[in-house]
Write a structure and sequence with these properties.
Chain lengths: ~140, ~180
C-alpha cells in the first residue's frame, strides 16, 4: 500500500522523469546476473554479463518445428535428474515456458521435483508414511 | 584324499556368510533372493532334509523402498486370541516401530510353513543401519547383488558430470540468472 502511495506521489510530482523507452527491439545484451553492492550510502546495481556455461554442451536441434525435448526423442522420467535439472532455477522451481521454449505438452510433463541442497525439505523428516523410501515402476509411467 | 579334494569338501559343507545391502530395495523381491541363500538352494548338494543353509547379514533395512503408495496400503494383521483382540497395522506404522520387521516378515512369508522355517530364519541377521558387530562382519565372504538399482540424487553426482552433461536447452539470450 505504501509503495503504491509512493509511486503515485512520485508520478504526479515529476512525470517527466519516467519519460524513457522501456521497450527494446533486440534482446537486452547477453545472459546476466543482477548484483547489488551497498557501499556506505551508495547502492550500486549492475548486471554482470557472462557467456552461457551450457553453450559447448547443447544438443543441436535438427527439426525446425519441434521443441528441443520432442526433437531429441528423449523419454524423460523422474529419475533423470541430470536432464531435469536443466529446466530448473537455482531455488528448485521449474522455469516458465517462455524461457524453456518447450511445447505445451512437454512443459506440463516435465514437472521436476528437485530440491536445492540448502532446502529444508528433508524427505526423512516428512510426516507419516511419506518419510519412507518409495519407487515407481518406470515402465508403467505413461505419457 | 588329496589336498584339493579336502578343501573342496570343507568349502562344500562350510556355512558361508553373505551380506546384503537393503537400501532402496523392495523387501518382497529381496526375500525371493535371500531365501535361496538361507536354505542353501544355490548349492549343488541342496536337499530339503540337508542342513546346508547359509547365514545372511542384511544392512540398512530402515532404508528399504516400497512401490507407489504401498507403505499406507499394505496391512499386517495380528490377533491376540482374546475377543476383540484383532489389530491391523499399516506397513509404515510397523516400520516406525521396528525398521527390521517388514523385511523379516517378507522373508518369513516367502517360505513354506514347515518345521525348518524357524531354524532357517535364525540364520537371517537384519540390522536397521550399517552398524554391524565386528565379530559378525568378520565372517562375511560374499556379497549378494541388489535386485534394484539405487536412484542417484543430483547432489551425489560430481560437479563436472552435471556441467558437462549434454544439455537439451540453452538459456535465452536475454536471460537474467536467478
Ligand atoms: Zn514438443
Amino acid at each position: 500500500m505504501s509503495l503504491l502511495w509512493f509511486s503515485k506521489n512520485v508520478l504526479s510530482k515529476n512525470s517527466v522523469l519516467f519519460n524513457f523507452r522501456s521497450i527494446s527491439t533486440t534482446p537486452q545484451l547477453q545472459i546476466k546476473e543482477i548484483k547489488e553492492i551497498q557501499k556506505g550510502k551508495e547502492l550500486t546495481i549492475y548486471g554482470e554479463i557472462f557467456k552461457s556455461p551450457r553453450e559447448p554442451y547443447v544438443l543441436n536441434n535438427n527439426h525446425s518445428s519441434a521443441c528441443p525435448v520432442c526433437a531429441s526423442g528423449l523419454d524423460i522420467k523422474h529419475t533423470d535428474v541430470l536432464i531435469l535439472s536443466q529446466f530448473v532455477r537455482s531455488d528448485g522451481c521449474m522455469l516458465p515456458r517462455r524461457i524453456t521454449g518447450l511445447c505445451r505438452k512437454q512443459q506440463k510433463r516435465l514437472m521436476p521435483n528437485l530440491n536445492p541442497s540448502w532446502s529444508k525439505k528433508d524427505p526423512k523428516r516428512r510426516y507419516g508414511w511419506k518419510k519412507f523410501n518409495k519407487y515407481f515402476d518406470e515402465s508403467t509411467i505413461k505419457c | 584324499m588329496s589336498a584339493l579334494k579336502r578343501v573342496q569338501q570343507w568349502a562344500t559343507f562350510a556355512r558361508i556368510w553373505h551380506v546384503y545391502d537393503a537400501a532402496w530395495q523392495n523387501p518382497f523381491e529381496s526375500a525371493q533372493v535371500l531365501k535361496k541363500y538361507l536354505k542353501g538352494m544355490h548349492k549343488p548338494i541342496y536337499h530339503p532334509m540337508n542342513d546346508c543353509g547359509d547365514h545372511v547379514i542384511v544392512l540398512n533395512s530402515a532404508e528399504i523402498a516400497l512401490p507407489g503408495d504401498e507403505w499406507k496400503k499394505r496391512v499386517y494383521f495380528h490377533h491376540t486370541g482374546y475377543p476383540g483382540g484383532a489389530s491391523w497395522t499399516l506397513a509404515w506404522e510397523l516400520h516406525n516401530k521396528d525398521p527390521t520387521m517388514v523385511l523379516r516378515k517378507a522373508v518369513y512369508n516367502s517360505m513354506k510353513g514347515n518345521l525348518q522355517r524357524r531354524y532357517t530364519m535364525e540364520r537371517l541377521h537384519i540390522f536397521p543401519d550399517a552398524n554391524v558387530p565386528k565379530e559378525l562382519m568378520g565372517n562375511v565372504s560374499n556379497q549378494i547383488r541388489q535386485v534394484r538399482p539405487i536412484p542417484k540424487r543430483l547432489d551425489h553426482y560430481p560437479e563436472e558430470d552435471v556441467t558437462q552433461f549434454p544439455k537439451v536447452i540453452d538459456y535465452p539470450k536475454d536471460y537474467v540468472v536467478k
